[in-house]
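Supplementary Methods, section 5.1.

A reviewer requested that the exact input to the structure prediction be made available. We therefore reproduce it here, unchanged from the version used in the analyses.
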Amino acid sequence: MGQIKKFRKKYETPMHPWQRERLIEEKEYVLNYGFKNKKEIWKEIAKLKKARLQSKKIIANKTSEQALKEKDQLLSRLIKFGILMKDSTIEDVLGLKATNFFERRLQTVIVKKGLARSVKQARQFIVHGHIFIGDQKVSSPSYMVSLADESKLSFNTNSTLSKEDHPERAVLTKKDEKVLEEIKEKKESAKKEKKVEVKEEKKESPKEEKKVEVKEEKKESPKEEKKVEVKEEKKESPKEEKKVEVKEEPVKVAGASE
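The structure derived from this sequence is encoded token-by-token as follows.
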């Protein structure tokens, strides 16, 4: 059996959960790069932080042999994935941004290569197993594509998307985009008209009239008359007469004995 290792997080959560500027940036990243959740963003930012931290340590210890080895390894790795240029130095690592890592993800590279029309569609193709790099299927949208692998990107030969005539691969022209925009505008206008009609019907509905009629019936209901009649019956009940008769009877019996 192998050694049991503890799985650790590959990212760090923000120090404060509600920062307006950071939340706006993350929302833009989700729209532009098609992230599924915030964890995917934080993982890429963690890669950037790791590279910056390593470059700072190398700059601090320029003379040591270990620093020179780490410098060559770091630069060669970043150049391999197209994040840095060939002539870049270790100081250029400090000027990198999170978007430099986002653009080398498989999801964004597919859109740039023209294999998908949008970032969401690219993610769908990857997750459903339509994308190959050479002879290997890749189903992870966050896969970092190297410059050598970029030319090997293709569709699965068994997939219908491998045909260029497939409707999902068709590139929209400007005329098609205008037609789609007109259709959207018509749908939105129809929805607004329906909402206005519903509001007018609610205003003209006879609910208020029914409520008024119910209130008038309650006012004219004979409940109060019944209560008055019950009270009068209680007043005229023969309970008191019975009590009087019971008191008189024992008096008559005493007089007879005498």
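Residues 174-203 form the longest helix (30 residues). These observations are discussed further in the main text.
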